[in-house]
Design goal:
By secondary structure, the protein is mainly beta. It has no helices and eleven strands. The strands form three sheets. Strands 2-3-4-9 form a four-stranded antiparallel β-sheet, with no helix packed on it. It has a four-stranded antiparallel β-sheet with strand order 5-6-7-8, with no helix packed on it. It is globular and about 40 Å long. The chain has a single domain, classed as Rieske Iron-sulfur Protein (3-layer Sandwich). The chain binds FE2/S2 (inorganic) cluster. FE2/S2 (inorganic) cluster binds next to loops.
């Protein structure tokens, strides 16, 4: 499993919640959507704000500063003022560990 980094235990991120982690100098948001884990950049593409401090509803995360919304599965912008999508990262669950892989 080269290149994969364990960033959390499945039990530490409840459904609809987010954990901020740093992997290879990138700050990621690890989100639990109904037991499915997703990894996206934790920094809004509009300004330097942590998205984990915002709200999660459905499969969207809302920026706490100006309210842009992003799709947690795809990183796509769902509502302005941000217009650049978030980067997403592959996630695996192995036993009780949540693993991500960060590539350039
Ligand atoms: S900083 Fe996120 S919408 Fe402005």
């Amino acid at each position: 499993m080269e290149g994969w980094v364990e960033v959390a235990k499945t039990t530490e991120i409840p459904d609809g919640q987010c954990k901020s982690v740093i992997v290879e100098d990138r700050m990621l948001a690890i989100v639990n959507l109904a037991g499915e884990f997703h990894a996206i950049d934790n920094i809004c593409t509009h300004a330097y704000v942590e998205l984990c401090d915002g709200m999660i509803f459905g499969d969207r995360i809302q920026c706490p500063l100006h309210g842009a919304q992003f799709n947690i599965r795809t990183g796509a912008v769902e509502a302005p003022p941000a217009y650049e999508p978030l980067k997403t990262y592959p996630v695996r669950v192995v036993e009780d560990g949540v693993l991500v892989r960060v590539e350039d």
